[in-house]
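quick one before i forget lol
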Amino acid sequence: MNIAIISLGCPKNQVDADVFCHALIKAGHQTVADPGQADIIIVNTCGFIQSAKEEAIENILMACQYKQQNPNLKVIVTGCLAERYKTQIVSEMPEVDAVVGIGSNAALPAIVERLTANGAGQVESYGPKCDMELGGARVISTPRHYAYLKIAEGCNNRCHYCAIPLIRGPLRSRPIDDCVAEARWLAGEGVKELILVAQDPTAYGEDWGKPGAVCELLDKLNTIEGIRWIRVLYAYPERISDEFIAALVRNNKVVPYLDLPIQHCDDEVLKNMNRRGGRKEIEDAIRRLRAAIPNITLRTTLIAGFPGETEEQYSELCDFVKTVKFDRLGCFAYSAEENTVAAKMDNQIDEEVKQRRADHIMELQAEISAEKEAKKVGKTYECICDGVDDETGMYLLRSAADCPEIDGSIMTPADTPLEAGAFYNVTITDADTYDLYGYAESKVEE
């Protein structure tokens, strides 16, 4: 069978798709990029916030439209939306042929076989969340020079706005040796940049009674031949211990880059969010990181318009953004998610007000980002080449300060051929708000 896989949402979801894609290929199927050529379309959905749910539904409906030209086409929905809204998908989208919860991903080859048998009706399969595989054989769907390594599944933080524990279950950390074995395999496949992902990598090992185990993991990953860069997404401020910072410093392959999803700075708002720690802990983590790693790039995520957020608290957040000056920042209007504590809170804020606040913070950050990018002009950075931009024809490169698929790029002219996945010294010649422009001076020998 020709199978098209549409994977939405975060890198963790993409890794899940890579695992079941490998299982389908092993079962004798082949993947195709064009859904119009597929016998089966699998939509691996995200269901985290409203915009992600809308995108998932749009893609499911788009997949079903291909049935007009191919009446025998089967559409399978899996991922977070399928896990969270299984009943609604079955009842409201009868054109969907199978709804598969995350705990049944390993059964997809059998489900495909069942669907293609004569007379098969709509299939539902929902295994326990703990049946979701933490690792396993996979394909590499990213460009060959970088890959995501999922080190844990689920979360125990129980933030009041977040549906992840409802969808993915409690924290389950993947064994260290298993993570290292996959990282070695990835290196053997040509991966140069390893990006560690989990809902909260700094909580890695807590479910074994071994908090801080991510430090040991970094020590072991740092020894793998072929890996040049190791990037950690994400780090929660209250878990940024001196030991964690020391692990970042002593492991030379770990790039000086962290995403700290702080969400807010006001103590009362953070308490209402059920976040651990407050402004003092956030500022202390930032201070210690910048003191120990002076060239570190810090990124964060904020929520504007959380229930009960006053104008004064919002103003405090604006002042915080202007004072701390994160290198990268994303701010989102609060999205009320069903069955979360925050969705049931009083003092919900008008959508227009939430969006206005989020937009204003992004305007503040744009000025900060432009100022920081301008300071890089004239400097030279070691960068990895991601390939050629189809629109401009220029090469796209990234420094250690740039995470793929999240941050900007360094664009260089195409007059000198560059190799995707290779490292170059790039001198910056110009900058805008989020992107840099430069010239590749020389290739960095491995």
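fyi The longest strand covers residues 254-263.
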